[in-house]
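#lab-general

N.A. 3:47 PM
ok so I finally got the sequence cleaned up, no stray characters, all 111 residues accounted for. can someone with queue access submit it? mine expired

B.Y. 3:52 PM
send it over

N.A. 3:53 PM
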Amino acid sequence: MNNGSYYELYRSSSVGVTLTDALDDLIMQGRIDPQLAMKVLSNFDRSITEVLSDKVKASLSFKGHLDTYRFCDEVWTFLIKNVTFKLQNANFVSTDKVKIVSCSSKKPGEA
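B.Y. 4:20 PM
back already:
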């Protein structure tokens, strides 16, 4: 995450996929250039990272069985099975498996 670039991991979220599909449609229709679409996606990467960092204050805890983990290019990935989440309101949510991707919280240019 240097030189003003941000992680692209939110592009695989439902809003990121929808944005990418809409941009692809606009490119196919000749309404925008691919370079503009890439700029829009870069702005999306920056905006969603900043908003989630500044605005989301919720927290939770979880328990499960660590199945797989890896650390590559400063990104941790954890695959956890039989997970139970405890939310702030003391509700519990369970699922068979969860993938957690953890990236550096430093902004571009920070040491």
